[in-house]
Design goal:
The chain is an alpha/beta fold. The protein is built from 21 helices and 13 strands. The strands form four sheets. It has a five-stranded parallel beta sheet with strand order 6-3-2-7-8, with helices on both faces. A three-stranded mixed beta sheet has the order 5-4-11, with helices on both faces. It binds D-mannonic acid (CS2). Keywords: Oxidoreductase.
């Protein structure tokens, strides 16, 4: 039977059809009709559905208060795929052992621009205690220094019309404003993106926005709302047709948007949620006062090396992380970066052996079941590299160490941008126009080219771009890769 015939014959996943899933598929272990919505999530992309929604799914087995209302800030794609499935979707865990689980924690999907009032109603509902976000680095609308970007078009819009917001920060503030006005307690806001000090940055941006709307609201948020910092981790490649076919074969049901990830998953949350919070520890979340230790280690070792493999791997013609880490010269680069450049900048959180952690990350990259495209990781370099590489560069320079190897991912990114421009291919990056203009104006010799890229101050702060040790290292790497 061809896949097409199988697809046309399979029942679509839904509340009614889920019990007909093939044996071995895990189904929600609770009555979804009894679940209340206690969480509003912004940005229900693959990572949310692989990660936080999975934790809430486990939580619901013991506590029905933590169902999720998922809010897309822009496109209706997730709602259109999940509504006919009653919010259900399949999570495929692809590893040494493979498992398939139908996740039931998403009870409602809203598309904010279509129905902002419905989003505000959820945010202002007394039962809503938690707001989570996966809106990617650029969704935080911060400047290069990490402050609210009041020149960002979405923030300009929202400050002019705070009751009709389009940005994540704008929605968070309008929801809090309504709760403040109604005499309710604020919700806790849990940022789940790969930004250093994510919760703190988001709190500062939220308070700065609220200050412009109503100073009393700003101080109420400042004093009462929890914005824990977090570390999130699980490798989640984008969904493709191969996954849809695999999920259908394994479950017997057609799912328009299943999600795949490795078996490993980790969520570390700063222990500031207080009374009445979900019992996240009961489902494997680490609550700690040392998030920074975990978050730096993960951002610099996993994400830093991911971005390195992405740019350096694409230049060498590789397509996936698995292929790149199987290339001996790239594996050696990854190992040396971890051991000699990154680990010396880290302080291990209690109980974490950094060398073993680094080794475990490389082992995860070698997972043959996961086809993680380097081109996916290469997106949004201007937003990612500051957290993933440049923080390490700064610490190494401050400690008087050379940054020759750390300059390799930076130089590889420059070559990647040049190659994309030469092919006439699009660059997925909020700074794409600026970066492509830089490429067009390159003089074509090492010093001039590097100076052109390093002049993008939203990525390279002036002190770094002016550091002769850094500039020399990038020139060397750029020349060698060229
Ligand atoms: C990756 C991350 O796409 C990327 O930039 O580095 O999504 C990475 O897979 C996750 O952070 C792993 O937790």
């Amino acid at each position: 039977m061809t896949t097409d015939t199988a697809a046309s014959q399979a029942l679509r996943l839904s509340a009614a059809s889920a019990p007909a899933a093939l044996p071995g598929v895990t189904l929600p272990a609770y009555d979804r009709d009894k679940v209340e919505i206690g969480v509003v999530h912004f940005g229900p992309g693959a990572f949310h559905r692989a990660h936080q929604a999975f934790y809430f799914d486990q939580l619901l087995a013991n506590d029905p208060r933590w169902g999720v209302c998922a809010v897309s800030l822009k496109s209706p794609g997730v709602r259109d795929a999940l509504s006919p499935q009653d919010g259900l979707y399949t999570l495929a865990q692809l590893d040494h052992e493979t498992s398939f689980r139908v996740i039931g924690s998403i009870l409602e999907v809203l598309v904010a621009p279509e129905d902002p009032e419905a989003v505000f109603a959820r945010l202002a509902a007394p039962q809503t205690r938690i707001v989570t976000l996966t809106v990617t680095e650029k969704g935080y609308t911060l400047t290069g220094e990490g402050k609210l970007d009041t020149t960002h078009p979405d923030i300009v819009h929202d400050l002019a019309e705070p009751r009709r917001p389009v940005s994540a920060v704008g929605y968070i503030v309008e929801g809090l404003r309504r709760r403040f006005a109604a005499g309710l307690s604020p919700y806790a806001v849990i940022a789940c993106d790969n930004l250093a000090d994510n919760g703190w940055r988001l709190k500062a941006a939220t308070v700065a926005f609220a200050q412009a709307v109503d100073p009393a609201l700003a101080s109420w948020i400042e004093q009462n709302a929890a914005f824990p910092r977090t570390m999130v981790d699980s490798i989640t490649p984008a969904t493709d047709d191969a996954l849809r076919a695999r999920v259908q074969a394994a479950t017997g049901l057609a799912d328009a948007w299943p999600i795949q990830r490795e078996a490993f998953t980790q969520w570390v949350v700063e222990d500031v949620l207080g009374d009445g919070a979900p019992d996240l520890a009961s489902v494997g979340v680490t609550l700690t006062d040392d998030v920074r230790g975990f978050e730096r280690a993960k951002l610099r070792l996993l994400n830093g090396v991911h971005s390195t493999l992405a740019y350096a791997g694409l230049l060498k013609g590789h397509e996936t992380v698995f292929e790149a880490v199987g290339d001996p010269s790239l594996e050696a680069l990854a190992r040396d970066l971890m051991a000699k450049d990154i680990i010396p900048t880290l302080t291990a959180p209690r109980g974490l052996d950094l060398a073993a952690y680094a080794e475990a990350i490389l082992e995860r990259f070698r997972n043959p079941e996961i086809r993680h495209l380097l081109s996916q990781i290469a997106w949004d370099g201007s937003q990612k590299l500051p957290f993933r590489i440049l923080g390490t560069v700064k610490d190494a320079l401050d400690a008087g160490r050379d940054v020759d190897r750390l300059a390799v991912p930076i130089a590889a990114w420059f070559h990647f941008l040049k190659a994309r421009a030469a092919e006439g291919a699009a660059v997925t990056d909020p700074l794409a126009d600026r970066l492509l203009a830089v490429v067009q104006a390159l003089p074509g010799e090492v010093k001039g080219d590097v100076a052109g890229f390093l002049a993008v101050e939203a990525v390279f702060p002036a002190d770094l771009a002016g550091d002769t040790r850094f500039v020399a290292a990038v020139e060397k790497a750029y020349g060698e890769l060229g």
